[in-house]
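Structure tokens please, single chain.
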Amino acid sequence: MQRADEGLGFIMQYENVAWYQDGKVRILDRRIYPIRVEYVTCQTHGDVAQAIADMVTQSGGPYLAAAMGMALAAKEGAGKKGEEFIAHMEKAASVLSHARPTTMQRMIDITSGCLEAAAAAIVQGEKVDEAVFTEALHTVNARYAKAALAAKYLVDKIPDDGTVMTQCFAETIIGM
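Here you go.
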């Protein structure tokens, strides 16, 4: 899968936003970046939700963190079967999607997509955490592609000597 973050700056590369690998989620601590580059390592989906609530990740970061948290939840629930596993994933989806009230509706959409990917992986006999991780990449790729389209038109609106002031980190739209 081609990634939409290819060639973008450090702060917009997926691994430097939130990343699931080796049974953990690593999130760039945006509370101290760019003064220092440090990551918060989450061992559980609950840790990911707490990092989202604590503003460790900002702008579009909570969306990727929630999706990666769902991959971690799938790994956590690996010993569970059938309805018990689905209940575990539904609880994780609720915890992650409600971690920050200002992003809740979009987070519900993202975690629901991850739940669907998990259910499909179970039916197809695939590794559920890998299927959810792939869904997370698909989701963030789609978001970045949408931002790139907007940025393509927005960039012409900014004068050569113009200044962009944002209330919140503008992330991909300005960065692309």
